[in-house]
Amino acid sequence: MSAEVEGRLSAGQRRALIERLVTEQGAVQVEELAASLAVTPSTIRRDLQLLTDQGKLARTYGGAMPATSAEPSLGQRSALASAEKDRIAEWAAGQVSIGDTVILDAGTTTGKLAHHLRDRSGLTVVTNSVMALTELVDADPVQVVSLAGELRHISQGFVGPLAELTLSRLTADKAFLGADGLDSRHGICEASLLQTRLKEQMIAQSREVYILADSSKLGAMPFNAWAPLPSRWTLVTDTNAGETDLAPFRCLPEVTIITV
């Protein structure tokens, strides 16, 4: 269908087409939809909000994805808020000191953090992330400890008793955790209890905890598995996070909020 024809669609037809595109592609971006449908980005945002309110879609940073309980793949998540995640990862890398032992959780932002740590001498990285391991596989200055266990293919992270057993033998200076969603009351949201159990253990084994969550994750509750927030931690997000997004976290004791 040409842009000219698509631009003459009724609002209902346009939203039905958007819903179909999201289902087929797994994730879409506002600017791409606006260009292909010959309407303004603000029109697309209103369409996405209405479809989200109707339970047909789930909003992501800059776009939308299917509103199902299905977990997006790591590849799908990598395409979302890429620049924001890289800024968060670069800031987090600046908190790592020579001689540190750090835990990197599985996820796209922590994978980007691993990239920024490739040249650090005297650094030990403990991780369950295939993405982080791939980044560090030829990083000779970095000592790498893998939390190998059961591989969750969709998130490319190891979980389960074997990963937990290895982690129980270690302590770390800092832990950098990702999240599918972050809620001030419930904590870190993930698709699997195995993921949240390992995150809790990462928190318990670390002196300092950083949760790396771009602004689309704040207040999001896409699944039903939760890891409670630590008593003291740092939230690192991007500058698109508004005061409404951040206010619930500002009310928590012993939390530091960084926007980059």
UniProtKB/TrEMBL annotation:
GO molecular function: DNA binding; DNA-binding transcription factor activity
Annotated keywords: DNA-binding, Transcription, Transcription regulation
Keyword set includes Nucleotide-binding: no
Superkingdom as given in the UniProt entry: Bacteria
Span of domain HTH deoR-type: 11-66
Entry-linked SMART domains: DeoRC, HTH_DEOR
Keyword Transmembrane: no
Entry-linked InterPro entries: Carb_Metab_HTH_regulators, DeoR-like_C, DeoR_HTH, NagB/RpiA_transferase-like, Tscrpt_reg_HTH_DeoR_CS, WH-like_DNA-bd_sf, WH_DNA-bd_sf
Alphabetical list of Pfam families matching this protein: DeoRC, HTH_DeoR
Protein name (database record): Transcriptional regulator, DeoR family
Species name: Saccharopolyspora flava
